[in-house]
Design a protein that fits this description.
The protein is of the alpha+beta class. The chain contains five helices and ten strands; from the N terminus they run αααααββββββββββ. It has two domains: 8-70, lambda repressor-like DNA-binding domains (434 Repressor (Amino-terminal Domain), Orthogonal Bundle), CATH 1.10.260; 91-183, Sandwich (Jelly Rolls), CATH 2.60.120.10. The strands form two sheets. Strands 1-2-3-10-5-8 form a six-stranded antiparallel sheet, with no helix packed on it.
C-alpha cells in the first residue's frame, strides 16, 4: 500500500484471527508465505504497509480469497462504498481498491477498482481462480504471459489466473474494473470450463 493509507485494523484483525483458527505460529506462516516474521508481526499490529504481492502471498499461504483478509467479517444488509475511505493496495504499476466481496454459489467473487500506471509492467506469478477485466478508460495490455490482449474502453477479457500474467498500459494511465473469481472450496474441482464462451464473444 502507498498513499492510500495503512493496512488498518481490518487486515490486522483478520490476519490474526485466520492464523489462530489454523493454529499457525508466525514462524510457520512466514515459512508458507515467504514473508518475513517481523513483517507479519507488523501487519497483525496494524502498522504494516503491505504490497499487492504481500497480500496475495498471504492469500495463497492461508488458502483463502484476498477478500477474507481485506473485508470485515460481518456486513450490514445495505453496503455503500465510498472510494475516499478505501485502503489502497499498491505495486510498482497497479493500485487496487477492493469494492465488494460476493459469495455466489460455489464461488467467491471480489470486485476491485483498478488503476494501472504507465511506464511499468505488473507481473503476477499466478493464483487460483479467474480474472475478469473491464476497461473504463485508457488502453490496457493484459493476459497470460505470451497471450496478452489490448483492451480499450468498454472491452472485457477473462482468463485463468493460475499461471503468470501481466498488466501494462499502452500510452497513458488506465482505469478498469477487476473481478477475481475463486472457488469457495480451493480443493473442489471446477464444475464449468474457465471463461466459457458464448457465440458473441471473440476467442483469443
Amino acid at each position: 500500500m502507498s498513499e492510500g493509507g495503512a493496512a488498518g485494523p481490518v487486515l490486522a484483525a483478520n490476519l490474526k484471527a485466520l492464523r489462530a483458527e489454523r493454529s499457525l505460529s508466525l514462524s510457520e506462516l512466514a515459512r508458507r508465505s515467504g514473508i518475513a516474521k517481523g513483517t507479519l508481526s507488523q501487519l497483525e499490529s496494524g502498522s504494516g504497509n503491505p504490497t499487492i504481492e504481500t497480500v496475495f502471498s498471504l492469500s495463497n499461504a492461508l488458502r483463502i480469497p484476498v477478500s477474507s483478509l481485506l473485508t470485515e467479517r460481518v456486513l450490514p444488509d445495505v453496503v455503500v462504498v465510498r472510494s475516499a475511505g478505501l485502503d489502497v493496495l499498491s505495486s510498482n504499476a497497479v493500485d487496487l481498491r477492493m469494492l465488494r466481496r460476493l459469495d455466489v454459489a460455489s464461488s467467491v467473487v471480489e470486485v476491485y477498482d483498478q488503476r494501472v500506471r504507465p511506464g511499468q509492467v505488473q507481473h503476477s506469478g499466478g493464483h487460483p481462480g479467474l480474472e475478469h477485466v473491464v476497461v473504463v478508460s485508457g488502453v490496457l495490455r493484459v493476459g497470460p504471459e505470451g497471450h496478452t490482449h489490448e483492451l480499450g474502453p468498454g472491452d472485457y477479457v477473462c482468463f485463468p489466473a493460475q499461471g503468470p500474467h501481466t498488466y501494462e498500459t499502452v500510452g497513458g494511465p488506465v482505469a478498469s474494473v477487476l473481478i477475481l473469481e475463486y472457488p469457495a472450496d480451493p480443493d473442489a474441482p471446477r464444475a464449468a470450463a474457465p471463461c466459457a464462451l458464448d457465440p458473441h464473444v471473440d476467442s483469443p
